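Final report, closing paragraph on structural work. Over the funding period we assembled a curated collection of sequence-structure pairs, and we close with a single example.
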Amino acid sequence: MKNKSKNKKDPQLISYQILRRAVGILGIAFPVVLLIGSIICCGCNEIQTSISSYYHTGMRNIFVGILCAIALFMYTYNGYDYRDAIAGNLACIFALGVAFFPTSINDAVTKCIPFTIDNHIIGKIHYVSAAGLFLIFSYFSIFLFTIKDKEPTKMKLKRNIIYKTCGYIMLGCIVLIGLYSICRYYNKCNCLLDNRIVFWLESVALWAFGISWLIKGNSILKDKKKNN
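Its predicted structure, as stored:
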């Protein structure tokens, strides 16, 4: 007689999978919701210079809300051992830093940006928080998600390749944003100002983050079920 308990999924495992999927969906949807929402609800057809700039638009509440949701999920995520818990707590802190310490904007008020905040201290906290958040996300993908089982399946090995790819994409985007910021500081990147390069780099990083968490949530590239 078969043991029925073996056929039942661990409720804790199911909850973690749902949590990971929710985080992945939020990451992928974040830039899309801000961009489309700004067009539909605020009548703003311009792509902002960065995702963080949407804090100063009519999408501020959505911007803060999504980051707070990600922070909450990260706080409740314990993973497999202390490394997951520490990384999750740090991600929570950084996400809240990005949400409640907005980037500084000293440009003139426009239809898209009805109000501005120009505070260098707050702005620096925001940049440090944003960089820290993406670094933690990269750490999850490259080091934590790729921990191998004693006998990893072929699908697990494939997933590890994608995890690392997503992690390095995030790191690459961080480096490019940093180089672009230095370039702008020395007024050498004027030709790129209209390309909204930071917005797109941040979007690519968030999509890579979202994909890695969706895979970790067992949404795609699942292991094949073994017949009893």
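Confidence is low (pLDDT under 50) at residues 1-8. The radius of gyration is 20 Å. We thank the funder for supporting this effort.
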